[in-house]
Amino acid sequence: MCQEHKPVGNPSHFEGTEQEKTTAHAVDGTFAQYTQGMKFFDPHVHMTSRTTDDYQALADAGVVALIEPAFWLGQPRTGLASFKDYFASLVGWERFRSSQFGIKHYCTIGLNSREANHEALAEQVMEILPLFLQKEGVVGVGEIGFDDQTAAEEKYYRAQLELAKEMNLPVQVHTPHRDKKKGTERSMAIALEHGIKPNMVIIDHNNEETVKSVLDQGFYAAFTIYPFTKMGNERMVEIVKQYGPERIMVNSAADWGISDPLAIPKTAALMKIKEVPDEHIRLVTYQNALDAFAQSGQIQESDFINGLEIDQTQKFNGNTVLRGGQAPRVNKDSLIIR
Ligand SMILES: [Zn+2]
Of 138, 220, 256, 301, which alpha carbon lies 20 to 30 A from 293's? Predict the structure, then answer.
């Protein structure tokens, strides 16, 4: 299996024949040749954990907008103030940082499944969620759902589905790594039970085992191109060939672990090489995510389709992305981000 192979260079994950691996390795270095002029929307990437080099690489690769879901930070938070500051950073500093590289930043806000298990704190987090969900640029409740599939996780998943329904926001559902099939079915059944329309729910981290049921029931199916554990690019191409592009979207879910923020452009390049039609590539790497989350009423494509104005002389609460002595990039008139 794939876990036995050591990653080569940037860890975009591929598995399969030697020939496929050779193609894949080539794409890692040459993807930009195939994606000239394409624009991408990454609906799941944790930029708080990434560097300015990543922002620059995303901008250079044609990523014009992204969604940062609220998630678990790798260790449990110990108090409500940590959640508050984190949510505030997603609509504040991180959005500003993204804008400095010409990328439109949106987010989803929610109580992640792992920390739902700390019930005393979870109760307090539930109280502040409505305030943050109302903020500009918040395009859904997420990422929420199951991790270990405990009773507490179910309780707060249900409570947040109600919140999404009340506020008429899409829901971004994290599906568990263990018992994925069962957890995915359960997540969908509960959403339907709460009267949420399937087209308002983005079921994330799908694989070959879950995709058919998700699409058949009318939900959006998101796929994470992530080294070793989730979808490899080759497998993703096969899924798009088999199921077509409708309601399918690709994301990087890049975070503080080994992951690849350029997973979407690289997958697009591989699709191009494998002769997936251009329009299908556009749908799964840009348009479908836009359509799904635009149901929040918070996304205007005209805000980013031609690139944001970059002005690195700007400040956020007195702070800039620059360090002493660095020259700011200002690019007000040009539509080309460079
Ligand atoms: Zn995530």
Answer: 256
